Amino acid sequence: MARQLKIDINFQEKLEAIASQFRNLDTKDPSGWPMLPRFSVFLGLAVACIVALWFVWLSDIKAELTQAQATETTLREEYKIKLAKAVNLDALKKQREQVQQYVTQLEKQLPSKAEMDALLSDINQAGLGRSLQFELFRPGQVGIKDYYAELPIALKITGRYHDMGAFAADIANLSRIVTLNNLAITSVKDGALTLDATAKTFRYLDGTEISAQRKAAPKPAKSS
């Protein structure tokens, strides 16, 4: 019994000694504090720093995780698109061939530079074949576009209404592309009509013209 009482007294004395170190501390001079309070403050600051750094590190990890998830979603979508293309590769090749054939057919409807005179003659013959009188048939200045050339032709013809309609149908049925633009019809004597219009025909550019177009095209500015 005496031994137990002695241990309890010693323990209480130690607690009292520890507590006494935290009493009457001068907050303006921590360097004068006893060892235990100074160590406790140091340990608390260290734990606070570690916790703060832990949360900062976790926030960075969260941002990286969010970015990685977004990248994963993008890659999944790209994979689906590429997979669909791979599955439909044969169909896409067939469509490409069909498009190329269609483009070739359209190019065949554009006369070459050497065939333009024959096409102008066809337009003139289409009018004469419908008993129309040409008061004006004047080719204009050729306009060079990116991949083709455009030739406007100023027309002024006189004739009957039905003959003019048949002439327009004949123009539409030519093997080469010809369009009638800016149509203006006025009546003259004896029930005849006068048609003012601009016929436009198109031709593809030859190799020399394509090279000239490429040389004339503005070059992209070099990034410094």
Structural description of this entry:
The chain is an alpha+beta fold and 224 residues long. The chain has helices at residues 2-21, 35-87, 89-108, 116-129, 161-172, 207-216; strands spanning 133-139, 143-144, 148-159, 178-187, 193-204. Strands 1, 2, 3, 4 and 5 form a five-stranded antiparallel β-sheet that branches. Helix 4 packs antiparallel against helix 5. The model has no long low-confidence stretch (mean pLDDT 78).
Ordered list of secondary-structure elements with their pairings:
Layout: H1 2-21, H2 35-87, H3 89-108, H4 116-129, E1 133-139, E2 143-144, E3 148-159, H5 161-172, E4 178-187, E5 193-204, H6 207-216
Antiparallel strand pairs: 1-3, 2-3, 3-5, 4-5
Helix pairs in contact: 4-5
How many strands appear in the DSSP assignment?
Answer: 5
Sheet with the most strands, sense and barrel status: 5 strands, antiparallel
Mean pLDDT: 78
Report how far the terminal alpha carbons are from each other: 93 Å
Query: Strand portion, in percent?
Result: 15-25%
Strand-pairing-aware structural class: alpha+beta
Which sequence of SSEs, written as H and E, runs from N to C? HHHHEEEHEEH
Rg for CA atoms: 47 Å
Q: Supply the number of helical segments.
A: 6
**Low-confidence parts, pLDDT < 50 over ≥5 residues?**
none
Residues in helices, as a percent range: 55-70%
* Overall shape: rod-shaped
Please outline what is shown here.
The protein is built from six helices and five strands, in the order ααααβββαββα. It has 224 residues and is α+β, with helices and mostly antiparallel strands. Strands 1, 2, 3, 4 and 5 form a five-stranded antiparallel sheet that branches.
